[in-house]
Every structure is written in structure tokens, then in C-alpha cells.
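Pilot study result, target chain (323 residues):
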Amino acid sequence: MSEAASLQLLDALADGALHSGEALAQQFGISRAALAKRLSPLRDWGVEVIAVPGAGYRLATPLERLDVSRIREALTPEARAVPIDVLARTDSTNTQLLASEPARDPQALFAESQTAGRGRRGRGWVSPFGSNLYGSLAFTFPAWPARFTTLPLAVAVAVARVLDAAGLPQVGIKWPNDLLVEGRKLAGILIEPRGEAGGPCRVVVGVGINLAMSATQAGAVTQPWISLAEALGERAPPSHNVLAAALVSELHGALGHFAQHGFAPFAAEWKRRDLLAGQAIRVEGATPLHGIACGVDADGGLLIQTETGRQVIHAGDVSVRRA
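Predicted structure:
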């Protein structure tokens, strides 16, 4: 079964309304049995297709496909030169951009689903088709920026601004760069740098935002999570394409500002959104650590006041949980 044929069927069902099996079969010039086979890959992709006996098929929720032209229409003027591509399925948008030609940077890639999505510290990122936003931006700095280790914090602020504009000013940041609402994860960031000392520094910034993922689709997720749709309640969420454009625009602008000014333009907003500051926390690692979170140092490390004095924890070394 070709991917194109399954996508055509998905587009026919995208409105979320009930469509009779007979009408769908006629629309595509196939038998009812062939129609059932064409539905099978959609379920494998994580699309929730509901069969109503004697009536037809519908999606559990309407689905908006990503479209390059619609994304480009919503970009800020400064980001309109960024090449943008959209894939129906891929292993990982980060993996694809890491293998892409750096001369095309800055460039963005989105996927409707990922078969090997990745989060920080090698964790998998659950990526059902069309229910979330999965995107990456590749950016090349002429040289390694000073205090490069603060970049994850700056990017977290940039993504928080995207979610703020979508209607969630209460988004907080859990060090170093998880975006939370009501104590549950809404978005995550993975930054992968490449380059050698004294030369250019290329980064691929991957972002995953939970948009309308259902509990069934999120079955493999092991931490508390929330979708944008749930967080907004009765308020209408932005379209997937508008959100994708906002993400490209904000990341492109943030990386440019970071190249020129470092973390300084983001520091005040980071402090305002810091969910751990003043909290009793424990750091899980080879040697458990308990203390009070006291913000971050000049290199982006987490400051912890312990009984024996202040200590610094660096991103990637530990997992932080509220005590």
C-alpha cells in the first residue's frame, strides 16, 4: 500500500465527520475490501480511525495537515528566507537535518509523524501522526558562541514565547528546557551541536509540542503530560500551520539574537518562567543531591543550595524532579 494512497484517504477523513465506506470506496475507485486495507497503515501511524458498523469511518478528532505554503504565509518577514520542508513520515526531523547540507542553513523541517523521535538523554519521543508538532531548525554560527551552554535555556524561552502567543502565558520552564503547564509537560527540546573548536558551530534544534494527542496515542509516555488543546480548555487552538510558522520565526530570531548577544536578552524571561527557583528539589544521579534551587549560573548550570554549600549541576548529567 503506497503512502500517497493512504494520505489521500486520510485527507478525505480529515474533517472528523462520518464518511460512508461505500462513498469512500467509490471516491477512490476501489472495493470496500481494498478500502479497509488502505485504512490499516493509518492506524499503524497512530491515527485514531473509528469504524462505525453499518455507517462508515471517521477520525477521533479532525486533523489539519501541515502545508509549506500555509506555513510560509504566516512567517515573520525576517524568517521568510528560511527554506521549509514537510514530510509525512520520517525517523526524526533532527536526524534528517543533521544529514542535510549546511550551506542551506538556516533551514527547517517538519514531519507529521516520526518513527524514531528523540528527546534529551536518549529518551524516545512519542510521535503519532498529525496529533502533535514535530519540527527542527538547523542554524550555523560562524564560530562557537561564548557561553554556548546557555543556548538550551535561550531556546526554551523562545518556545515559551510561541506557546504564550498561542494563548498560554502561564507556560513555565523546568531546567534546562522542558515546557510545563500545571506541572505537566507540554513541549520538549533537543539541541544537537556539530563542529570543531576554532571553526563554525552548527546546531539542530528539535522541538516537540503536544497539540491534541489522546491518552491512547500517548500510551508509551511515562511522565505527566498535557496537550495544547487541553491546556487551552474551551479556547480555540491556533492552526497547526500557524503554530509551525511561529516556531520557525521565533527560533530563527532567537538564534540570531543569541549569536549577537548571548543569553542576556533571554535572562529576565528565563528567571520569570523558572519553575524550580526557590523549590526544594532532589537531583537523581550516581549520588543523589537534595537542596533548594537558586536559578542558574552564567554558564546555564542549575544552582542548588545544599546543607554543605552551593553546588552547580550541568545539563545532561542528571534528572531533576521536584521534591
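One observation from the pilot: The chain has a mean pLDDT of 90. A full batch analysis is planned for the follow-on phase.
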